[in-house]
Design brief:
There is one protein chain. About 65% of the residues lie in helices and about 0% in strands. By secondary structure, the protein is mainly α. It has one domain: Hypothetical protein af1432 (Orthogonal Bundle), CATH 1.10.3210. Helix 3 crosses helix 5, helix 4 packs antiparallel against helix 19 and helix 12 runs antiparallel to helix 13. The radius of gyration is 18 Å and the shape is globular.
Amino acid sequence: MVVKLFSTEQVLERLTRLPTLPVLIRELMSEFRSKNVSINKLAHNLSRDPALSATMLRLANSSFYGMSGRIASLHHAVIVLGTQTLEAMVVAAGMARQFTKLGGLSGDARRFWRHSFASAICARNMSAQLMLDTETAFAAGLLHDIGRLVLASLFVAEYEQVVARKNKFEIPLLEAERTLLGLDHAAVGAALAHRWNLPQTLQHAIGHHHEPGRAMEQPISEVIYGANLLTQNPDSPAVQTAYEIDTAQPIWLRLGLDVGQLQLCVDDAAEGAREIATLLFEGTGSGTVGP
């Protein structure tokens, strides 16, 4: 008999003790929520953090955006990146700085971020084919697994047991999390996204990226469910294998994407994930969380 390490209530209570993000990042997130987002104010606030400013300038000048060497100001960088992509990047950078002691992820942190960025790129590409909001899809793909960082940070020793159980019995991570902690990283990620007042579309996608039935309630959530499947191994996306998963069939049919189209969506995910992860975490002091 497996003894649950914590009750669901205990896990949620500890979530309320999660350290807040740095003041500047919280101010930026507040500005993102403004009805009239000021590009000048965003650029000004970014300029207060030299490391974050340099990161966003490197990203805007990356080959991913096709603007190499042409973006010289933060104002221009904000325009190129777009507010939702910028918000997701700011949140990710803040989490990478803050969550450096991670139970069960210390040796897997590089792969974690590579997978997150591969999912984001794949989701953006899928959304482009489906004529959905590519910026929202990228943000949701990047942040879909934030619950894993939270659990690994708040329950360092216990999450090591979760990962050990997953590996020993060759079971899904969510099953190991629910068995030992009472809830999974998708639920925790959605709770955190709600606490940080991220858009409802992102909250839904984060909370249901492992549930095809619930994912089908919103197009972006369907895309994130699919992108997550396709990029489990960011270095070698198994498109055919992901396409043949029985529970995923309704998603692929609803999205109307065949194997060939999905292959196009993931072709540049591995290379792009490596480049963006390096750009995002270079010089952030994120320790083991970096790529």
